[in-house]
C-alpha cells in the first residue's frame, strides 16, 4: 500500500520552497501525495495563488479557507482557530500517514495542532531557527515539539532542535530547500525577465520585501516609511517591491507600497506574488535584497549579492559577510546603502559561500520520510542534554 504523505502550503513563497520535495513525492510509485492549500493562496488580496499551483499540475485535495479578511491581532487569532478546525476535518477525510509542514506561520501552527490532536505524525522542515523579532519564533518551536521528524537547514539549527528535547536520531541536517530551487530551476534571462515584469532594468536594481515585525507594537508604518524615504533619493535605480505577508499590520505596508509606486511609477513596480521562478530570476539581476525577508539571509548569498537587513525581524539567523544589518532609521539605512555599493563590500561578495547545503535537501527529506515507520507511535521521550551546573 502506498504511503500517504500530506503536504500543507499557505503561501506562494512556501509552496515554491516545497516544490522540489513535492516533485520527489509525486514521482515515487510508493507514495501517494496529498496537498492541502490554505492561507494566502485562497485570498484574492494576495493573488489567489492556488491557481498557480493548479497550473503546475499539482492536484489540490483540500482547500481550507481561514478567512484572511483582517490583519489585526483578533483577526489573525480567528484565522488560527479556523485553521485548527479546518485541518482536523481535512485529516479525517484524507487519513494521511504523515503530514509535512514547513516553517512557522500561524496557519502552519494550526495545521500542527490539528495533526497532533488527530494523531497524525508530523515531519517539520526548517525547525531550529531563530527570528527574535517575530512571533513566528515561538510558533516554530511549538511545531517542533509536536513533530516526529525534523529537517534542519544547517548544523547549528539541528543542534538547537535537540536542545529542545528532540531525539537526535530523528533530527537531520539536510540543507535548505531554497538552495535546491536555485540549483534546479531554469531561471529567466534578463530579456525574459524584463518582458515578464514589463520594465527595463536600470544601472542599479533592488528587490525590496518588508514584513511586519510582529513582536513590536505599531512600528511597521514608521520603519517602512524610513526605508521609502531613503529609496526615493536613490538615483538611476529600479525598485521591485514584493508585497508583505498576511501578518499583523501587513496591509499597512502593502498600502504604502502602492502609494509609493503610484508616485514613482518610472522607477518602481509592485508585485503581489512573484512566484519562485520569477523571484529567483529577479534576484540574479539585482544588487541586493532589501528589507527583512528570510530570502535575503538564505537564498541571496547563493547569488553572491548583498542583503540590507533592516530591524530585528531576522535576528538570530546565521549571518554571512554578504548581509548588512542596520536599524530601521533613515541614517542607518543610508549608511547601509553606502556600504553595499562600496568597493570593498562588492569585492568581498565574490568569496561568499552559502552554508545551506548542496541542493539535495529534497532527496534527503523524501528518502527519510518514505522509510519512516509511521506505526511507531507518537509518544516521545524528552531528550535531556547532559551538562554540569556551574556554581
SSE layout and pairing:
Elements (H helix, E strand, L loop, with lengths): L2 E7 L2 H15 L4 E8 L11 H6 L6 E3 L8 H22 L3 E5 L3 H12 L4 E4 L10 H11 L2 E4 L2 H9 L7 E3 L3 H8 L5 H8 L6 E6 L10 H12 L5 E6 L7 H14 L4 E4 L4 H8 L4 E4 L3 H4 L7 E5 L12 E4 L3 H11 L2 H6 L12 H11 L20
Parallel strand pairs: 1-2, 1-4, 2-3, 4-5, 5-6, 6-7, 8-9, 8-11, 9-10, 11-12, 12-13
What would you say this structure looks like, in words?
By secondary structure, the chain is of the alpha/beta class. The chain has two domains: 189 residues, Glycogen Phosphorylase B (Rossmann fold, 3-Layer(aba) Sandwich); 165 residues, 3-Layer(aba) Sandwich (Rossmann fold), CATH 3.40.50. Helix content is 40%, strand content 16%. The chain has 15 helices and 13 strands. The strands form two sheets. It has a seven-stranded parallel sheet with strand order 3-2-1-4-5-6-7, with helices on both faces. Helix 1 crosses helix 7 and helix 9 packs parallel to helix 10. The radius of gyration is 21 Å and the shape is globular. It starts with a strand and ends in a 20-residue tail after the last helix. The model has no long low-confidence stretch (mean pLDDT 92).
